[in-house]
Task: structure prediction
Amino acid sequence: MNALDQAIFVAGHRGMVGSAIVRRLKAIGYTNIITRSRKELNLLDQQAVHQFFEQNKIQQIYLAAAKVGGILANNTYPAEFIHENLMIEANVIHEAHKADINKLLFLGSSCIYPRLAEQPIREDSLLTGQLEPTNEPYAIAKIAGIKLCESYNRQFGRDYRSVMPTNLYGPHDNFHTENSHVVPALLRRFHEAVENKQDEVVIWGTGAPLREFMYVDDMASACVHVMELEMSSYQRYTQPMLSHINIGTGKDCSIKELAKLIAKITGFSGKLVFDNSKPDGTPRKLLDVSRLEAMGWQSGIDLETGLNNAYQWFLENHQKART
Result:
């Protein structure tokens, strides 16, 4: 059988991450990509997931489905964030094992690491300190996903891999001004400020925190690269007792620098006001991507190029963008 004919299930294909993985797989030439909408397959329903894997001969899974959001959403809906993410990953990973599906890639988040982890953050920093309180429930769910993969690998010899992407942005992002992450929220806020001829834009926090941002198609390229590595090559960089790999650019910038760049891209020339009463979150979060680079992959899309691409997508899809 041609490797490009393998049946690949991308869970969460309508989201920003899942849709980017589908684009990458198609660009490489994979022809049998299987997707299901939330209405067609509720990943919170274990029996539905069981039946889906029984009825479809899946050979690989990219587990990109998740409940995600920014600081406000994580603070407001902690129960939903921990419950839904735990249920999705437990159902998919366990039922994949029961269906004898041997290859799976679980997508986590850089928020799994301690709030004050040494920078840049290495993979072995996991579980060495306290998490950032504003997104702790989400982070714990993602840590559980990593440990699920590790556990099925150890006990059953599965090839379940995990990647921890940095902060992502790009097509199909959530552009809600309050419940989204910082890049799409600011893109929309500055865009509307220009439309409404506003003199200033208010930005949460002090602007001092340092963040790493990665264009989602860049991340998808890295995910497929990690998934396609021979087992011996993958194990060389994930042993002992690690199943996850950081995915990022290796570069960061302050929120203030980000805001200035987005103002430039959207054509906003007014004043930037930083609301110090709002939380900053983690002071700095930069991933150590030396393992990923040693595996033969490096980021190829710089921040300004990626932001321009993301803004162009927003302009072209303004009516259907999640706002």
Observations:
- The two ends are 43 Å apart (CA to CA).
- The domain at 3-172+213-250+287-302 is CATH 3.40.50.720 (Rossmann fold).
- The CA atoms of residues 163 and 223 lie 7 Å apart.
